[in-house]
Amino acid sequence: MTAVRPETTAQSAPGASATPASSSGSFPTGFVWGAATAAYQVEGAAAEDGRTPSIWDTFSHTPGKVRNGDTGDIAADHYHRYRDDVALMKDLGLTAYRFSVSWSRVQPTGRGPAVERGLDFYRRLTDELLEAGITPVATLYHWDLPQELEDAGGWPQRDTADRFADYAELVARALGDRVGVWTTLNEPWCSAFLGYGSGVHAPGRTDPAATLRAAHHLNLAHGKAIGVLRAALPSSAQTSLTLNLHQVRPLTGSAEDAEAARRIDAVGNRIFTGPVLDGAYPEDLLADTAHLVDWGQLVREGDLAEISRPIDLLGVNYYAPTVVSHPADGAGATKNDGHGASDHSPWTGSEHVAFHLANDDLTAMNWAIDASGLHTLLTGLAASHPRQPLMVTENGAAFDDYVSPEGVVNDPQRIAYLHAHLDAVRRAVADGADVRGYFLWSLLDNFEWSYGYSKRFGAVYVDYATQRRIPKASAHWYADVIRANALPPGR
């Protein structure tokens, strides 16, 4: 199939400025409607065509790390079924598909030349998307570090940032004629703080100092990759970073709870937005964590200039707000922070903070449903960084979905969730936020990290025994929204 250059396709510029909405219920003309997945969660084919283990292969095969001993060895078998999955996307009317590239499929040891068989899968996938009129949006890293790089020290080692830049160049040179929108990292907070702090994500380490070193080197990897992408890609290509920004709220109006919120905002948000968007780490973050790392030694000359290279889009992932307080007994943080059970806090340097649910309207993940947090997050970013275009790159919910005797999957809770959150996006746009599009998480039910296959986020139900796909009621609802470029009346 002949490659189509991204600038020649009808939906080739999901980062382009959209025309304002013409009515209260509609979205801007040109608004991007997408869905997202991640390589380890959907691809399967874990040992095919030269792919070697990533940290998530190792982690999931370690007894006790993942619920029910589940692994991503087969997952949703997207590697073999991508043509059928793209056909589903076309049926839903998606204008963009956000996927991630498996680093160890492309560059098995994290060093050296690319494996062309690995790249060929992404060539086939992107060609199929373009043929269907769907814009491919590639994420270079969604948590699957090659195991050999972790064995060499992983993200706490500065060299990993250089290895990532080399990998980014390999992928950009292979797919730059097909992909017009590139994301460097997905949720580096999770990679650093859940992977090296609480240990509930791969590689499962619990070292507070390593957590902070990992965060800086992920920032540096992002900056280095942006430089490489700019050099390797056509001038029309767009670059981005996706962050799971925490919409932090103090439980009460007390000074103590305000201080708790400040600390979590620093270590949860501004450790990334500070250097990336403002060119500096916040002074309060440095003070909070000075007992763990020597920032003056960690951050070398030129790092911040590298990290703060301009990006075309900032991806925002949102699921639930983060409500915090100062613990009444002055003890450590509660375990109900929404990021999995562990004896080790992911909130490195700010462990003495208590977490609370915003309300008792919960998803199957026990996350509070509160769409106002997404509106606040988007309008807050628009106020603090008015020239930075935004994209909602993940939003969705897990519920206890099942196939009815009639062979359908009705999920009214998800429809209500999506309606409320899309309305929050629409209102944020009306309030002046430059939000260019929305990606539903997720296209397919998939391997939900340490929860294994026990949680279903997909718009499309996957029967893992047969790999049969069944679009849920929410998928049909989302297709109607895309077709109308507007929300239906009511909820």
UniProtKB/TrEMBL annotation:
<protein>
    <recommendedName>
        <fullName>Beta-glucosidase</fullName>
        <ecNumber>3.2.1.21</ecNumber>
    </recommendedName>
</protein>
<keyword id="KW-0136">Cellulose degradation</keyword>
<dbReference type="Pfam" id="PF00232">
    <property type="entry name" value="Glyco_hydro_1"/>
</dbReference>
<dbReference type="InterPro" id="IPR001360">
    <property type="entry name" value="Glyco_hydro_1"/>
</dbReference>
<keyword id="KW-0624">Polysaccharide degradation</keyword>
<feature type="region of interest" description="Disordered">
    <location>
        <begin position="1"/>
        <end position="25"/>
    </location>
</feature>
<dbReference type="InterPro" id="IPR017853">
    <property type="entry name" value="GH"/>
</dbReference>
<keyword id="KW-0378">Hydrolase</keyword>
<feature type="compositionally biased region" description="Low complexity">
    <location>
        <begin position="8"/>
        <end position="25"/>
    </location>
</feature>
<dbReference type="InterPro" id="IPR033132">
    <property type="entry name" value="GH_1_N_CS"/>
</dbReference>
<dbReference type="InterPro" id="IPR017736">
    <property type="entry name" value="Glyco_hydro_1_beta-glucosidase"/>
</dbReference>
<keyword id="KW-0326">Glycosidase</keyword>
<keyword id="KW-0119">Carbohydrate metabolism</keyword>
<comment type="similarity">
    <text>Belongs to the glycosyl hydrolase 1 family.</text>
</comment>
